[in-house]
Design brief:
The complex is a heterodimer of chains A (about 400) and B (about 350). Chain A is mainly α. Chain A has helices spanning about 15-20, 20-55, 85-115, 120-135, 140-155, 195-220, 230-245, 270-300, 300-310, 315-345, 355-370, 370-400; strands at about 175-180, 180-185, 185-190, 250-255, 255-260, 260-265, 265-270. Chain A has a domain at about 85-135 and about 270-400: Orthogonal Bundle (MetI-like fold). Chain B is an alpha/beta fold. Chain B has two domains: about 1-120 and about 225-330, D-Maltodextrin-Binding Protein, domain 2 (3-Layer(aba) Sandwich), CATH 3.40.190; about 125-220, Periplasmic binding protein-like II (D-Maltodextrin-Binding Protein, domain 2), CATH 3.40.190. In chain B, the strands form three sheets. In chain B, strands 1, 4, 5, 6, 7 and 13 form a six-stranded mixed beta sheet that branches. In chain B, strands 10-9-11-8-12 form a five-stranded mixed beta sheet. In chain B, helix 3 packs across helix 9 (about 235-250) and helix 9 (about 235-250) packs across helix 13. Classes of the chains: A mainly alpha (about 400), B alpha/beta (about 350). The interface between A and B is large, with 47 and 53 residues. Chain B: Keywords: Signal, Transport.
């Protein structure tokens, strides 16, 4: 028989903060925190004092002064009389453009290469290994410079397209001009009535979404599988096309043509954008391929064997059994690859692509001499972009991760 | 590039205040050499040869200052800077003097806190195009693709010029002269624009310089000169009067050939005597030895000799004196008197 006696009730003594194990760790942490904050405060204060001594107190007024320089690639309206802040915004959009294009291309390429590397075909899998090792192990800056150098040296100048017997001709039904300044593509011109075609297209997208839900519900109830892919494709194309012709072809294609020193009309993708996009995608695709391969290999062999024993075809095994399980391994490292790609896009200035580092962190910084302010804003912008990407991807990760019951 | 900007910023923030107070002259004397910022390579102005020896018009200014301060024109270490890194390098104390065909502007002088010690080359922004393009005026450049060195005044001048003439163009920003040259020669841009002197120097290095023309329009004033940090007037005076000494030497007819003789003993011309230290104590006032100007001039000759040897009409670059002639010959070079 045991006797439980209450411990003696004692009041809290100061010495307990150090000698009582219940409080000690907290005391140490608080002291460390205070020390850390003091160190940060000293660094900031030191910077401010010395900047003031240099005669350059922190100030962000320069953002609202006219920038004075032109930017070649503008996704929003901009001219040299607009403010530095506006120039920075143009840069942010350019960064986002190359990051989004790069992430999409890198994902498609990466998944393809990762799957092919697991191929049973010796030649294919070895080729993919060479690709992955080649791209992973050379700095991305060199790939960017190389892509640009090839672009500039290999493709013809716009001038070569001129004359009776031009040295270069336009490709694909005379509609695409590939020059060393970039690629000129045909662009759409929206005439009167084109709004209805676009509305029809958006309606088709909605229809596809609802059809998908309905088909899934039907399959769960009856077990019958519809050829959803072909039906969805038909919904996507047929109504829009019909309305396009009924309305009398309101959307025209504008073919680029030589005008002055360059091509005019259509869509102009600059050599700097293409070189950067290509290099970043190819480089990041090599990492994504490895991530995908590791994800697929992480699914135990028994899973695919069990699925095969149930009579599923290889395509369905991949879609229904392997990939859903592989995704939860693939997605977390994939997030960091997307972040890497976005951050690597700051190498854009090497090829003269005017991203945020080129506008705010380049020309604005140089013309105003506000290094500290520009770099603080620049870091803040990259931080926000990166955190946004990881938030979105983490949300997606939550959705696909294994539901444990 | 990004890294150096950042490091420069941090260094500027933490160190520069200390440097300004310490006195650049004592510091240069203590370390025994002058740290001079120059371009990453522009033939005639500042370029390193195969042995790593720097030579050129801007380099000569560095050498003259080193000779005036330390008595040895070779006591210079060169820091190649791009248009973007140069000011941070100077502000942070990484270099003592910047001689990198830098345009003297209000905001650089006042807002960036630098002291321009004079003008060693009066320049203006021009355009170079291939002859095959058949362009005779910059106003015919509508829709052209223009290569510019980023981080320079040319970027702003260009925007102003095309805007005021209501011409559209496509700017291609480029980091260094060498890259701009590659893009221009491959035809990735129609036009290369920078200071006219830079264009002449770049063209001189082409395989067929005759295939390219510099257009007649000069769209800006670009007084190029060496500069130092604000806050050390003695050091600024040394750089300023070294440059003036080179210019005055040409005006007074002192050359690298006759300077030894002229500096032996006081002659008939009192200004030459004061300049070369055989009379008066100008060197002492600057905190230098009496023969400072003699050393500076002996380092590479007077202004005219430096000009002719590096960029003059007899060189491949072939620039005529033009605005950069002595005031007595109708140019703008006019040094205050040594008295």
């Amino acid at each position: 028989m045991s006797v439980i006696t209450d411990p003696p009730q004692e009041g809290f003594r100061i010495s307990q903060l150090l000698y009582d194990t219940r409080y000690r760790s907290m005391t140490i942490q608080i002291v460390a925190l205070i020390g850390f904050l003091l160190a940060i405060g000293w660094l900031i204060n030191n910077t401010l004092v010395n900047l003031a001594a240099l005669g350059k107190p922190l100030g962000f007024g320069f953002l609202w002064e006219p920038a004075g320089y032109d930017i070649n690639q503008r996704l929003i309206e901009y001219n040299s009389q607009m403010t530095n802040a506006r120039a920075a915004l143009v840069g942010v959009l350019n960064t986002l453009l190359v990051a989004v294009l790069g992430c999409i291309t890198a994902t498609i390429l990466g998944v393809l290469i990762g799957v092919l590397r697991l191929s049973k075909n010796w030649l294919v899998s070895r080729l993919m290994t060479v690709y992955i090792e080649g791209f992973r192990n050379v700095p991305v800056l060199l790939w960017i410079l190389m892509a640009m150098a090839i672009f500039i040296e290999v493709f013809p100048q716009p001038r070569d397209f001129r004359g009776e017997d031009p040295a270069a001709t336009m490709k694909i039904f005379e509609s695409v001009a590939i020059t060393n300044r970039g690629v000129y593509l045909p662009g759409p011109i929206f005439n009167a009535g084109s709004g209805i075609v676009i509305a029809a297209f958006i309606a088709s997208l909605a229809a596809i979404f609802f059809f998908g839900k309905w088909a899934k519900a039907r399959q769960e109830q009856t077990g019958q599988i519809l050829p959803t892919f072909w039906i969805k494709l038909a919904i996507l194309i047929v109504p829009s096309l019909l309305i396009f012709f009924i309305m009398g072809k309101p959307i025209d294609l504008e073919i680029p043509a030589i005008k002055g020193f360059n091509f005019a009309g259509g869509i102009y993708m600059r050599n700097s954008l293409i070189a950067l996009w290509l290099a970043l995608s190819l480089y990041t695709a090599a990492f994504i391929a490895e991530t995908v391969r590791s994800g697929i290999m992480a699914v135990s062999k028994g899973q695919s064997e069990a699925a095969a024993a149930l009579g599923l075809r290889p395509g369905r095994i991949m879609n229904l059994v392997i990939l859903p399980q592989a995704l939860r391994v693939i997605i977390p490292p994939m997030i960091s690859q997307y972040l890497n790609l976005t951050k690597n896009s700051s190498l854009a200035i090497a090829v003269g692509y005017m991203d945020i580092t080129g506008t705010l962190g380049g020309i604005t910084l140089n013309q105003t001499g506000r290094e500290m302010e520009c770099l603080i804003i620049l870091m803040g912008i990259y931080l926000v972009i990166s955190l946004t990407i990881s938030t979105i991807m983490n949300w997606y990760n939550e959705r696909v991760k294994l539901q444990e019951r | 590039m990004k890294k150096s900007t950042f490091i420069g910023t941090v260094a500027a923030a933490t160190l520069a205040a200390g440097f300004a107070a310490a006195g650049t002259l004592d510091e240069v004397k203590a370390k025994g050499f002058l740290q001079c910022g120059v371009t990453t390579g522009l033939v005639g102005f500042a370029a390193a040869d195969a042995n790593g020896n720097w030579d050129g018009f801007d380099v000569a200014v560095c050498r003259a200052v080193a000779a005036a301060v330390l008595g040895d024109p070779q006591a210079v270490k060169f820091t190649p800077t791009t248009g973007k890194t140069r000011f941070t390098a100077l502000a942070s104390g990484e270099i003592d003097l910047l001689a990198r065909n830098t345009t003297w502007t209000f905001s650089r002088d006042v807002d960036l806190k630098f002291t321009f010690v004079g003008v060693n080359y009066y320049d203006g922004q021009g355009f170079m195009v291939p002859k095959a393009l058949g362009v005779s005026s910059a106003k015919d450049l509508d829709t052209a693709t223009v290569c510019i060195q980023t981080g320079t005044t040319t970027e702003l001048n260009l925007a102003d010029f095309f805007r005021s003439n209501n011409i559209s163009y496509e700017p291609v920003p480029i980091e260094t002269n060498a890259e701009a040259q590659a893009q221009y020669l491959a035809g990735a841009c129609d036009v290369y624009t920078t200071d006219a002197s830079g264009l002449a120097a770049t063209r001189a290095t082409f395989e067929n310089p005759g295939d390219h023309v510099v257009l007649p329009e000069i769209i800006s004033k670009e007084p190029l000169g060496p500069l130092v940090r604000h806050g050390d007037d003695q050091w600024a005076d040394i750089a300023r009067w070294t440059l003036n000494a080179l210019i005055t030497a040409e005006e007074l007819g002192i050359t690298s050939a006759n300077i030894k003789e002229a500096a032996m003993s006081a002659g008939d011309n009192p200004e030459i005597n004061r300049l070369l230290g055989t009379e008066g104590n100008l060197g002492e006032m600057l905190g230098l030895s009496a023969d400072w100007a003699k050393n500076a001039i002996a380092a590479g000759g007077n202004y005219g000799e430096i000009f002719e040897r590096n960029i003059g009409e007899k060189t491949a670059i072939g620039i005529s004196r033009g605005l950069n002639a002595q005031w007595t010959n109708g140019g703008l070079l006019y040094s205050p008197p040594f008295r």
